[in-house]
Amino acid sequence: MTFSELKLPANIEKALKELGYSNPTSIQQKTIPLLFQGKDVIGQSQTGSGKTAAFGLPIVSHMKPGQGIQALILTPTRELCVQVSEAIRGFAKYTSLKIIPVFGGVGIGSQLHAIRTADVVVATPGRLLDIMQRGVRLSTVKFLVLDEADRMLDMGFIDDVERIIQSTPKQRQTILFSATLSPKLRSIVNRHMKEPAVIQTKTQVDTHLLTEKSFFVPSGDKVSLLVHCLKKETPGIAIIFCGTRHGCDKIARRLRAEKIDATPIHGGLAQTKRMHVIEILHKRGVGVLVATDVASRGIHVSNVSHVYNYDLPQTHDDYIHRIGRTARAGASGEAITFVSREEERDYKHMMRNLGRNITPTPLPAFEKIPMPQGGPGGPENNRDFYRHKRHKRFSRQQGGR
Hints:
By secondary structure, this protein is of the alpha/beta class. It folds into two domains: 198 residues, P-loop containing nucleotide triphosphate hydrolases (Rossmann fold, 3-Layer(aba) Sandwich); 180 residues, Rossmann fold (3-Layer(aba) Sandwich), CATH 3.40.50. It is 41% helix and 16% strand. It is built from 16 helices and 13 strands. The chain has a seven-stranded parallel sheet with strand order 3-4-2-5-6-1-7, sandwiched between helices. Strands 8-13-12-9-11-10 form a six-stranded parallel sheet, with helices on both faces. α12 links the parallel β10 and β11. The C terminus is likely disordered.
């Protein structure tokens, strides 16, 4: 199937061709016709499925400029907010629609001014509520999109999302995209969606091109093994996932001390700093990003050759989203998990739940890097803290899902 067969307006199709879009993905093929028919849609898709175009193309195809906020797209993170707004601006290049991103961490004045003439608003829940308290109304909304809805709930936005939904007209088209549908999310669906069609697709990660490995390694040797792996591999883009902001900063410093170009990215950095980091990474095409899980869904990094799980993810879904950053668009990729003795039980439990049977790879010979005076520090090497924290997380996951 081609985009021409989806019967998009000529100006939208022209913009798509300039953007390099050729054939629609599975989620786009299934979702776009339903949205053109005016149906509510639930899309269950993983990272890289093409969901932004799946909901963005029908929205810009049906809108006329200057009729108030007609489309509202809620996202869990500032990074995703910016990315979605930029993507929709690309689709709407040959229209006069005004697409405005609204997110925290920057001054509210310019956003408040811009939103008054917006046709499409892409927003994080907290900042949108701040703006609504200053008099902005959502009474003209025709399309409501909840993008990565499960992530919004995980981040504690459920009450904010409820308040925003209730501020929009009941006669609207509602579109929800989520990797999973938890009981809380199903409750939102039942209350606020009208006989939604459910579309399920797989991620664009090619399992035939993805190699998953695990190394069972002592906590104190993780940095040394990581340095060995990064220096051994062909230069490209690698993402290293850590469990905490402090861990990200510390690992990035250690890697830079070993002459590895590593940059941390997490929620503790200013929005402009995070955007600058990603921009530089894309321009260079090589480098190492040390990230918390905000990067597994909230930012877009192309051509990732390696993903390293330095710390075990908090949930099974986070594991899938992490490894979904590589082996995309026909390229091969490796996902490598470092498992300390404290993590073995949780790792094996996670693999069973995911239906995976990954035989641990024998440790290579690697040089032990001297640790700074006082030891490595951080929660990943505090065994009592780590054991308690992981047990609590996975117990909650097993009982609440």
